[in-house]
Amino acid sequence: MRRHGTSRTTLTWTALAAAAALTLGACGDGGTEEPQGPEGSTAAPRVQLPKLPGEKLEVAAVWTGPEQENFIKVLKEFEKRTGASVTFVPAQDPIVTFLGTKIAGGAPPDVALLPQVGALAAAVENKWAQPLGPEAAAQLDANYSDGWKKLGTVGDTRYGVYYKAANKSLIWYNAKAFEAAGVKPPKTWKELITAADTLSASGTPAVSVAGADGWTLTDWFENIYLSQAGPEKYDQLAKHRIKWTDDSVKQALTTLGELFGRKDFLAGGPSGALSTEFPKSVTQTFTGGDRPAAAMVFEGDFVAVNIAQTQAKVGEDALVFPFPAVGAKAPVVSGGDVAVALKPSKGAQALLTFLASADAAEIHARQGGFLSPNKAVDPAVYPNDIQRNIAKALIAAGDDFRFDMSDQAPAAFGGTPGAGEWKALQDFLANPSDVAGTQAKLEADAAKAYGN
């Protein structure tokens, strides 16, 4: 039985990978006119909220930069409709530790957005989380598939609203760099390595790797492992029913080493990759014309919000292709954040009701770099065809998905900076030849975290 409360999920290969393969590579902006909606529009709201004059709320999330700024626009609309005042509280990973400190100090936020699978379960176990009220539950029933509703449920009680999702099996590329090197988007891992060799030989390192953020490295591993080992093995490793010393892990790390082991493939080499945080990994790929720091960057649809900080235009300068097939089928890993009330207040429940509505999601979707699992969201609000088609594919996947592996793990193994899987894969990036040593470290840390 899979744990409930995960934030990153692995969706069906066919629904998303096929849609992505057909629509992502050469999409432009499309010129679709955005429908009128919240934030300055005259359209009637679709969700009714209570008046909360004078009420003060705090919302905590690990979001920074443009992601945080765009979410604050959603909170401003909530303030406008209710009369409440909402403050965004920047959180740090692991968020359970951050929230524990806040709660111990008697100052928990009213609502938190949790990015790891264990975080919701921990919040419920610690008696921090409040069950969803009837208004939020009604929005959930109206707008979400059963699978997404179950993800926010612990036992038989609903606690969370999956406000944000992500397709994390995408490789974004600098169109000018690809054109200058005469490279086409690869469909298989072998083709990816060949393309990387051609790109690097042309003078542009192939890949910008955000090695300073260990979570990106878990995503690299998971995409390779899912495609190469298959879903049954993936599920077993996610539950630690097979060990990290298994031959399937050896094979996946060896495959990943084909990329990480080539210093000329990585922007700045291994040391440069290990000092590169996620936002920079994106921006350095889309600055410098046809001679950027790297030609490609791997990560989810949310990369678009960081591309927006450059002069590059999604759909023209910045294009995307699905993560290449390593085995028989291409992988698709998806994720998101679940909103949970930590105070039994009317304001906290009202905010969850709003976050479960299409009104809130459409405000955020218009900004780009955001993907909603809310099936009532009009796809036309997404700012370009690339993001629009990613969103359509997510909704088309329905309930057929799996949990992201690192987010199924206890936070000490799968969600803590400088520890567990994050640290082991950073060490692997520094020395990709040490497959056996990496496996031994992963297994030791996993056994300790899982208690077996």
Automatic annotation (TrEMBL):
Signal peptide: 1-28
UniProt keyword Transport, yes or no: yes
Keyword Signal on entry: yes
Pfam families xref list: SBP_bac_1 (PF01547)
Full protein name: Sugar ABC transporter substrate-binding protein
Provenance organism: Streptomyces spororaveus
Keywords: Signal, Transport
Annotated region described as Disordered, given as residue ranges: 27-46
Similarity comment: Belongs to the bacterial solute-binding protein 1 family.
Coiled coil: none
